[in-house]
């Protein structure tokens, strides 16, 4: 193989990779635009649906956490 053949193969390979990168970029752009137009958002849902369902339970959990933190930090 002479130099011209090697350079031709390299340039064709580079063109194929650049077209592939361009297509992937457009796909990523379309997904971002679709996410921006989405009418819903993602929310955290606890694994246990019965966990902390009332304000009293949330207050109790926060109190226990504060007590444990005080014990650890020594306040």
Keywords:
75 residues; mainly alpha; 72% helix
SSE topology sketch:
Elements: H1 3-37, H2 55-73
Helix run count: 2
* Main pleated-sheet profile: none
Mean pLDDT: 82
Q: What would you call the structural class?
A: mainly alpha
Task: Evaluate the radius of gyration.
Answer: 29 Å
Are there runs of 5+ residues with pLDDT below 50, and where?
none
Total number of distinct structural domains: 2
User: What best-fitting shape do the alpha-carbon axes yield?
Assistant: elongated
Task: Report helical residue fraction.
Answer: over 70%
Question: What's this entry about, in short?
Answer:
The chain has two domains: 1-39; 44-75.
Description:
The chain has two domains: 1-39; 44-75. It has helices at residues 3-37, 55-73. It contains two helices and no strands. It is elongated.
């Amino acid at each position: 193989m002479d130099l011209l053949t090697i350079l031709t193969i390299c340039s064709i390979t580079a063109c194929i990779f650049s077209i592939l990168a361009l297509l992937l970029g457009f796909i990523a752009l379309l997904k971002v635009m679709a996410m921006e137009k989405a009418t819903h958002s993602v929310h955290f849902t606890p694994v246990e649906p019965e966990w902390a369902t009332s304000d009293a339970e949330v207050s109790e959990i926060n109190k226990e956490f504060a007590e444990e933190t005080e014990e650890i930090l020594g306040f």
